Amino acid sequence: MKGGPSIAVLLDLALGEDAAIAQEAAKVLKTQVFLYDADTDRLKEAFKNENPIAKDILESYARAEFFTKLPDVPEEIQVVTFIAGEGDISTDLLSPGNQAHSRSDRELHGKCMITPQAQAEIRALQAQHPDKSVMLIAEKGTMGVGSSRMSGVNNVALWTGKQASPYVPFVNIAPIVGGTNGISPIFLTTVDVTGGIGIDLKNWVKKTDENGKIVRNENGEPVLEEVYSVATGTVLTINTKTKKLYNGDRELIDISKALTPQKMEFIKAGGSYAIVFGKKIQTIAAKILGVDSLPVFAPSKEISVEGQGLTAVEKIFNRNAVGITPGKILHAGSDVRVEVNIVGSQDTTGLMTAQELESMAATVISPSLMAHTSLVATRLRYGIRRHRRTFRNS
Predict the structure, then answer these.
(1) Domains of the chain as residue ranges with CATH
(2) Coil/strand/helix, residue 322
C-alpha cells in the first residue's frame, strides 16, 4: 500500500523540526502515490512557507520518481498453462453467485474458485514450476464473461498471482490469464487494475477448404483446428520487449495488444490505480512548483472519427476529458485522463466497493456513490457508513 493513514504521520515528520527524521520521512513519501487533496494542500502550504523538505518532495513528484525508480518489467515472464475449461469461462465459475455472501472475505471466497480438484492441480503446477506463473486459460472460448469481474479476478489472483504486500494476507495482484477468443472487456479492465496480463491466444482457428470456405461439421458449426497447444502444463514465455508469445524458441503469436505502453505501466506500477494517482500527483506538484510536467508516462491516445456521432458514454467522456487537443471530439478507443466527479457501483454489497476504495488508500469517502437499484443503494449506503468509521479510525 502506497498511501493511507500513514501519509498524515509521514507529513508530520517530514515537515517537523527534526531535520534527520524529516529527511527519512521524505524518502518514504517520495515513493507514495495515494495522496489526496488534504495531503497535497499541506505540501503546498509548506512550500509557500519556503520549507526545503516540501520543495524536495514536490520536485520528486514532478519528476514522477515514484514511478521512474520502480524496477523495470522483466523482459521475459515464464508461465505454465492451466486449462480452466473449454469454451467461455464465466465469472460465475471463478466466483460463484451462490457464494456471493463471502466475496469480501478473500480467504473464504477463494475456496470456491472452479473446484477443489482444480485448485489442487494449480498448486501442483506451482510446486513443479516454482519460478513460473500459472496462466489460467479459456480453451476455445473467452475468459471472464459475466458481471462478477472484481471477485473473479480476486480469486484468480489469489490462486495464481503474487502477494501485493507481505503484511496484507490474501490480497494478491498480477494474475496472467488467456483465452482462445481473448478476454471479456470488463474482466480485462479489472486484470489491468491489478497489474496483470490478459492474452488473446488465437490458438484455435476455423478450418477452411482449398477454396477458402469455412469447413463445417454435420451440425453446421465451423470445424476448428489447433494452431498451437496450450495444454495444461505447457511452459510458455511472454517477451515484453518483442511483445511475442513463445514456446521455447518457437514464436507463437504477437501479443502487443496485451502489452501496450499503458498496460506496461500498469504492470510496472502494480496496477492501474497507482498510475492514475501518480499522474494526478505529478500534475499537482508541477503546478505548485510552476513548472511543466515531464513526459514520463505513455502519451494519451486520441481517436476521432470524422462525421460519426457520439454514444451517451462518449458524450460523458468528452465532457470530462482532461488535457486533450482543443476542439477535438473523441470516440471509443481513446485513452486519456478524465475528471471524476462521481463514483458508480453495481456491486451487490457495500463491502466490495469499500475494498476497492481501500485499495486506493481512501481514508474519507468524498465523491457521491451511486448504485443502479434501490436495494443495492440501500446496502451500499449501509456498507459505506460502516466502513467510513473503519477508514477514519485506521
Answers:
(1) 6-62+273-289 (no CATH), 76-269 (3.20.19.10), 312-393 (no CATH)
(2) strand
